[in-house]
Amino acid sequence: MNKLLLCGVSVVLTWNLAACSMSPQVDAQIVVNYAQKGAMVNPKMYGIFFEEINHSGDGGLYAELLQNRNFEEAVLPSGTTLQDGYAVAPHKPSYTTGRCNDWKVKWNTDSLKMVGWTVKGEADYDVVDERPLHKNTPNAMKLQLKHKGVILQNSGYWGVPVTKGDTYDLRFYLNAADYHGKVLARIVSEKGKILAESSFTIRGKNTWEEYTAEMTAADTDTKGAFQLAFEGIGTVYVDYVSLFPQKTFMNRKNGMRADVGQMLADLKPGFIRWPGGCIAEGATLDNRVKWKETIGDPMTRRSEWVLWNYHCTWGFGYHEFLQLCEDLNADGMFVANVGLSCEVRNGDYTDDLLPFIQDIEDAIEYARGDVNTKWGAKRAEAGHPEPFNLKYIELGNEQIGEFYADRYNKLYKLLKTKYPDITFISTLGLNKTLDKLEKTDMIDPHWYVNPAFFYDNDRMFDQVERGKFDIYVGEYAAISAANMDGALSEAAFISGMERNSDLVKIASYAPLLENNNRRDWPTNLIWVNNGGVMGRASYYVQQMYSQHVPTYNLTTIMDEMLPTPFNGYIGFTGKQPDNQYRNLKIIDASGQTVYESADLKALVEVESKVTSGRHSFMNGPAFSLLKEVMVGLGALEFEARVVKEPRVTNNLGFALQADSISHIPAIVFGSDEAGKNYFTLNLGNDSESSVVHLTRTVDGQGGFGRDPQGPELRLNVGEWNKVRIEFCKNDELVCSVNGKEVYRQQVEFLTKHYTLAGYDEKSGETIIKVINANEEPFTTKMVLNCAQVSDTGKVVTLAAQSLTDENSFEEPKKITPVETIFDGFDKEFTYTFAPYSFTVMRVKTSQQ
Strand (E) positions, 647-752? Predict the structure, then answer.
């Protein structure tokens, strides 16, 4: 048995069946020790990340009902020019490569002008900039009405939803050049029934006039429309047409949808990150989010094309973000541009940092400054004289490389000196460039991966060096499975974050929201449409973690009855004739040869295909299996020869390139018969360097590294190398090449069982979290090593019938937490955790 005891963290111990004397009635024993406090857990550890993507703001969280309300949808992204049907970025070098990306996007000005709008009746019409309402909203709808009864109609965001009895604030502007007569403002149902109507008498004035009304809906409809019906003739200009529910979250003017806001409140977020995300960088530098253009009267805010290919009104702007933080009792995190655009778009940059530094300082002053300061006064003018709680500033978003690291060092030193109480975050993740950072408060690694990666990496943070920085896991999601499998894998990964709460201080799932009529990203936490809002299974995982945060961790040990990871089929990777193998021997624990074969040429074939531009083993095993099984202890011996030189390729994260790995001699072991779950010991060159390393493939998804890596090893091309792999006690693997040991590593069997525990000082409760991602129930003996345990407590369980189950608008509560009272708690008790479940237990305990 591998023994590892770390105070304050959860430790999973694995047993070989032969060594385990545990009662056969249980699958594992979980022991919670109270002798020493573990790491403190940030009570605001779990936050939310907002970005304008999937129409998550306009058409989602932000309550405005009309689309393209200011007729600016056809305005080009800032910094681009129109060329041959494309919005084309400036020809400037990228900060990462020095080459010009020459980014562009298709652009049809004529079709974009009328997004959300139609004209019914006889009229000439166009969106023009002849008579600007405001410098930030230069375009308006020009109607030349030849006959009475022309209707200008807005379809909203996939319909204009209204609720019977609710009241809506209407605001619009007209410049009635020579128009005289009435204008009827109407909310109509999908079938054309008038649900609300207001009448305005217009007398031709060659100036802009504002019109307002309160409109109460006579019925409920989710797919209605809004109309301005003109009963006269003449020329009229229309701009900024807004229809806003009076019932918003916390009844804020220019606020958030009440139902969506409540979904966020139910997450109990510790912080909110705004405005992104890639849009904070911009497709070009000029296209970045400029927070000063997102405050003030919404009519005066300049909308901007965001790189998810639609315009954003910025009705949900910097002030609204700070107000939402206050309403949710969350800390604010502002993402500031540092003079760099998105490196996977144009990547252009500037060396003049003074305007960007000033912009950051002004943002801090707006949030926290006294009312006598310039920007503090503007906050007070917006109705909030007291400061907001802005705690974090992230300098950039997903910026990479030494160029960014050097820029971050300069900005951090300057800003930290002036604002020592603000936590400044670097966008660098856990990579080699971190060595280029002189100092930072936090780093921000991101993971968009398949569930197998999260299942296999719950201990990722156990090995990270302490003392240099804290970690903010700013974006993570299982993107290949919008179902219970993804949710449970995320729960497993989060358990590793919370267990390492001395290092990982805050975390946020991403993206947060989608309007399910417009999906720009495959998996999003909350789905919104005009009929309502629902959370995916992943939403409830986030909610359970955020609602059950302990004060500090407790040492938690899980002893589980496991087979050795060495049991299973063996095989070889490679592509004939790049790699050749011969003289295989399987040796048992007593030293006897139980299998021997001289010719292995026919066994080395690899299937591969290109997926999303990456070569990976997605459509079948990356090896040929021998119909022989390695059972338990013993050894493998074989000879390997590289015929073709390995080709070094760029690192692709967890997915290894097929054309690279095909030239790497490697042995597969512990495989199931389908070749979906196995280990691979790679001898030599991986995608970064020539090191021996072990990877695991889970459910057909793989290439997950198992630390530590071995030393560099280059097999001589064309020569036969003698390889011996020993499978030892305590599940240790030892590899020797040509008589010299090159690698030693403990191998862990993946059970998809996870546990951690902590103590809540405020409630006097022990909080135990257990994840069972398997199809079989998981029965455990629970041992609480404390003075007293109440026999009655609370159990919250999130469970599904299948890993493919997910919530939907038809079944929004298919997977939702169920709270029950359990009266069987004791210092020792038995509990069976349901298949495909995440469970939180809360029980009163005394440590004295």
Answer: 666-671, 678-682, 693-698, 701-706, 721-727, 732-737, 740-746
